[in-house]
């Protein structure tokens, strides 16, 4: 088994999409941690999944895990069923997710800092991805794990505009606190628009707010337009990359966010971080669920594409 | 240590139909109340629960007053779960939905803070534990884990079914869990839902078919039944007035019943001690405040009631 250097941590969620006529697609593999795993796996086999899930995970995800040689050692089977959602997409790219089990079920399957710590044992982990809320105690525990294990962290903020009950200012304070732990974070334009009360297409204004936060790097996703890699002083925009047909956007945010973490942790220049992230999303969008089988040839092809785009793409610096 | 009360901790806000209400959050939750039900009769009990950081402030006076063993308490999130209960005239209750919560996804914390089999196993290891209380759903994987721990550590298990699992469609899973549990506890609303029958008698008929040695069947202000394959004991409530707040009486009585069963008392006494637990619980908002103050009277009342009911059956 290859050495594990990256962890994709958190929720597994299968989803199906309700079409405009009311019918449903089949169930597809997904969830933040799984899409994140897939986003990193395009570039390296040295990644594993860290999650709590249902025993039925094996039935639906087992073949993918085998085919892509992803270690199962940190997949914990805690309940009968893994989490499932039905998604409906709005015309503006926003979506609603209807759960099939209770919030309690989802909560019981949340990955804890202790489980992330256990997953690091015996490996030299460079970077982890986690989609998570802002709970103070969770982050204190995570900070302790991070200090002990020495990895860098990409946090994808769990932000549900329709449910947020605390004042925005309070949420931002919690974000600032968490960014003293995570070097990187990611948010999309719908979330940022709600958080900062700025229209979602006003990238410059939103980026200006993001740059006030104490993050080394923010991966700011702007839907079908692409993404920005934002630092205190720079913001690099990259349009969506479509190496294949664009079939389903589900999970592209998680997928690209984790790939951005992989690239940043590896010391890629910032322009390349965004390219790598958007290429991963391009592979993810090619089918319902994750890209099915990553081969060495896929990695080589993706690397070649990244080099070509880096050489050819005009980047726009917003200062 | 001989007993573990495992599971959820809650902070309860209570409102009654006559306008009375608790003036503040009171400590509670199934595991806390079950702990109290056992602690009425013995000090050799610990609680195994995941809590919010605000547990410390709210529970500290109670912990210090009663010298409570905290090894099984883990702080996992910022806030304890809160329940906002509204009681109806008939004693039934429902949750209040329009309450502002501290975080948008607060409902996930119910799951994140659920006690896992591994967390219980940390403390059953060693073999001194006689009984474990747990309010839990019917998930097969969860119960398989409990089965393995129980086989390793050889304790008796009291299962209080969670209301969302008390539906007939879950009966196969209920029966599976009952192959692990030694004692079962449910109230009449849960029983009527689970068996799809009406009334105490019909419920008891169904309960007697279950593959579990003893069931505590709670019938609200009417008290409880201790149901086995061979016998049914009806026991009206014990009384230590005043009646202030029934929240947690089911959990408390279920904890007391576990203690009595594991200590080898007969089924009549199991029911009596269960009723005494809930009679001590109803005297105030929240959990029993001082166990040393109520233990002697509780044992005394148990003996009195046992003699009284025994004399009637002669």
Walk me through what this model shows:
The complex is a heterodimer of chains A (319) and B (314). Chain A is of the alpha/beta class and 319 residues long. Chain A has eleven helices and 13 strands. Chain A has helices spanning 32-41, 57-67, 103-108, 113-120, 136-149, 168-178, 189-196, 203-210, 252-265, 270-284, 296-312, and strands at residues 6-9, 13-17, 47-54, 75-79, 83-89, 95-99, 127-132, 152-157, 184-188, 217-221, 226-230, 235-239, 316-317. The radius of gyration of chain A is 18 Å and the shape is globular. Mean pLDDT of chain A is 93; it is low at 315-319. Chain B is an alpha/beta fold and 314 residues long. A nine-stranded mixed β-sheet of chain B has the order 5-4-1-8-9-10-11-12-13, sandwiched between helices. In chain B, strand 8 (131-136), helix 5 and strand 9 (156-161) form a beta-alpha-beta unit. The A-B interface holds A 54-55, 77-80, 102-110, 112, 133-138, 141, 158, 160, 163-166 and B 52-53, 75-78, 100-105, 107-114, 116, 139-142, 164.
Radius of gyration of chain A: 18 Å
Mean pLDDT of chain B: 93
What is the overall shape of chain A? globular
Total DSSP E strands of chain B: 13
Proportion of residues in β-strands of chain B: 15-25%
**N-to-C order of helices and strands of chain A:** EEHEHEEEHHEHEHEHHEEEHHHE
The main pleated sheet of chain A reads as: 10 strands, mixed
Radius of gyration of chain B (CA) equals 18 Å
Low-confidence sequence ranges of chain A: 315-319
List the helices and strands and how they pair.
The complex is a heterodimer of chains A (319) and B (314).
Chain A: E1 6-9, E2 13-17, H1 32-41, E3 47-54, H2 57-67, E4 75-79, E5 83-89, E6 95-99, H3 103-108, H4 113-120, E7 127-132, H5 136-149, E8 152-157, H6 168-178, E9 184-188, H7 189-196, H8 203-210, E10 217-221, E11 226-230, E12 235-239, H9 252-265, H10 270-284, H11 296-312, E13 316-317
Parallel strand pairs in A: 1-3, 1-7, 2-5, 3-4, 7-8, 8-9, 9-10
Antiparallel strand pairs in A: 5-6, 10-11, 11-12, 12-13
Helix pairs in contact in A: 1-9, 1-10, 4-5, 9-10, 10-11
Chain B: E1 3-6, E2 10-15, E3 26-28, H1 30-39, E4 45-52, H2 55-66, E5 73-77, E6 81-87, E7 93-95, H3 106-112, H4 117-124, E8 131-136, H5 140-153, E9 156-161, H6 171-178, E10 183-187, H7 188-195, H8 200-207, E11 214-218, E12 224-227, E13 232-235, H9 249-262, H10 267-281, H11 291-313
Parallel strand pairs in B: 1-4, 1-8, 2-6, 4-5, 8-9, 9-10, 10-11
Antiparallel strand pairs in B: 2-3, 6-7, 11-12, 12-13
Helix pairs in contact in B: 1-9, 1-10, 4-5, 7-8, 9-10, 10-11
């Amino acid at each position: 088994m290859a050495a594990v250097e990256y962890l994709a941590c958190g929720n597994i969620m299968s989803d199906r999409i309700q079409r405009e006529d009311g019918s449903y697609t089949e169930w597809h593999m997904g969830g933040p941690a799984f899409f994140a795993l897939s986003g990193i796996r395009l570039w390296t086999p040295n990644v594993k999944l860290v999650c709590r899930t249902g025993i039925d995970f094996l039935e639906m995800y087992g073949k993918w895990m085998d085919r892509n040689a992803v270690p199962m050692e940190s997949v914990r089977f805690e309940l009968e069923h893994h989490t499932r959602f039905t998604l409906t997409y709005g015309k503006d790219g926003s979506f609603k997710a209807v759960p099939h089990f209770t919030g309690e079920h989802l909560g019981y399957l949340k990955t804890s800092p202790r489980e992330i710590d256990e997953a690091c044992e015996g490996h030299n982990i460079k970077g982890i991805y986690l989609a998570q809320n802002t709970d103070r105690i969770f982050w204190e525990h995570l900070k302790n794990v991070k200090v002990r294990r020495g990895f860098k962290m990409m946090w994808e903020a769990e932000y549900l505009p329709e449910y947020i009950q605390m004042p925005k200012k309070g949420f931002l304070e919690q974000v600032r606190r968490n960014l003293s732990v995570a070097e990187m974070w990611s948010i999309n334009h719908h979330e940022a628009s709600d958080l900062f009360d700025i229209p979602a297409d006003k990238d410059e204004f939103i980026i200006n707010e993001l740059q006030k936060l104490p993050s080394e790097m923010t991966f700011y996703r702007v839907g079908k337009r692409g993404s920005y890699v934002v630092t205190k002083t720079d913001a690099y925009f990259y349009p969506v990359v479509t190496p294949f047909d664009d079939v389903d956007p589900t999970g592209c945010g998680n997928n690209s966010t984790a790939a951005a973490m992989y690239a940043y942790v590896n010391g890629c220049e910032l322009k390349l971080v965004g390219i790598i992230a958007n290429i991963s999303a391009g592979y993810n969008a090619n089918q319902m669920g994750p890209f099915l089988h990553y081969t060495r040839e896929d990695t080589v092809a993706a690397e070649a594409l990244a080099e070509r785009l880096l050489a050819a793409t005009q980047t726009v610096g917003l200062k | 240590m001989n007993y573990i009360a495992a599971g959820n901790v809650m902070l309860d806000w209570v409102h009654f139909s006559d306008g009375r209400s608790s003036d503040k959050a009171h400590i509670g939750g199934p595991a806390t109340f079950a702990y109290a039900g056992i602690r009425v009769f013995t000090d050799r009990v610990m609680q195994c629960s995941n809590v919010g950081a605000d547990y410390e402030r709210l529970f500290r006076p109670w912990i210090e007053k009663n010298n409570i063993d905290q090894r099984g308490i883990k702080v996992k999130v910022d806030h304890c779960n809160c329940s906002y209960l509204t009681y109806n005239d008939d004693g039934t209750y429902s949750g209040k939905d329009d309450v502002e919560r501290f975080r948008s996804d607060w409902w996930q914390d119910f799951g994140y803070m659920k006690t896992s089999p591994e967390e219980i196993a940390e403390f059953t290891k060693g073999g001194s534990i006689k009984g474990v209380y747990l309010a839990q759903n019917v998930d097969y994987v969860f119960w398989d884990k409990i089965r393995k721990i129980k086989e390793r550590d050889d304790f008796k298990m009291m299962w209080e079914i969670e209301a969302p699992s008390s539906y007939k469609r879950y009966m196969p899973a209920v029966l599976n869990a009952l192959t692990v549990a030694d004692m079962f506890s449910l109230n009449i609303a849960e029983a009527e839902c689970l068996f799809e029958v009406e009334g105490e008698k019909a419920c008891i008929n169904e309960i007697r078919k279950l593959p579990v040695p003893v069931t505590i069947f709670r019938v609200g202000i009417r008290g409880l039944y201790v149901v086995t394959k061979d016998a049914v004991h009806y026991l009206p409530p014990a009384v230590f007035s005043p009646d202030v707040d029934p929240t947690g009486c089911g959990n408390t009585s279920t904890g007391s019943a576990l203690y009595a069963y594991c200590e080898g008392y007969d089924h009549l006494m199991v029911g009596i001690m269960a009723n005494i637990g809930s009679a001590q619980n109803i005297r105030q908002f929240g959990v029993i405040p001082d166990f040393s103050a109520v233990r002697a009277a509780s044992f005394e009342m148990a003996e009195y009631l046992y003699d009284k009911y025994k004399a009637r059956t002669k």
